[in-house]
Amino acid sequence: MSTNTARRRSRRQETGLWRVPVRRVEQVTPRLVRVTVGGDELAGFVSAGTDQNVMLYFYPDDVPPPETLEDARARWSTNRPLTRTYTIRRHDPAAHELDFDFVLHDAPGPASDWAKRATPGDHLILVGPSPAYQPDPTADWHLLAGDETALPAIAAILDVLPDDAVTRVFVEVEDAAEEQPLPAPVTWTHRADGGSLAAAVAAAELPDGRVDAWLAGERSSMVELRAHLLDQRGFDRRQVRPTTYWRRGAPGS
User: Which of 4, 75, 147, 207 supports an S-S bond with 238, CB 3.0-4.6 Å?
Assistant: First the structure.
């Protein structure tokens, strides 16, 4: 991690384990479910917004869930959970609520499978939170690009940018049915029509000036997009921050 990038991360909050009941489940698009968890269990949870994430722990139904992080770590060798990292879509400290958006994959995976059957009263175990990306207030404009797995972070970043911030937002989803309302104009590209994130950005006319670029999604897409921004656009590598959220061909979420 470069010194520049390190300065643009919030400090890590104290890591904790929360076992929180599901309050609501909303089908946002055909392939995306939003699960709201909440309760007094989250009274001490502190969120820094943007791309802050937590680790979700999934245990077999016949394994008693841990009550504390120390308990979980103590049984790691005998009862190791399946884990997945998820961005916090929304944190409401007054209501003690967190929203998580789950992409419903066809392939089996612990998080996607859990979200498909989640109902109010179920419990979700989360560990964290992570540090969070802090947009550069001195940048002339902000580039946000990712696929559907990055939508929660993109939406949360847009929420904290000033109203007069210059933004260019690019999102790759399966088709038009997977588009979501966001608080800024978005260039959508659809895989079903042969579109790709890197191609959409390459075809776009982008503003002049110093950029603050946040990119997240599938690994090969991030490699291609970063290469385009550095090699063809000539962006300063210190101002381009790509993050791999998943890898094509890897086990499901």
Answer: 4
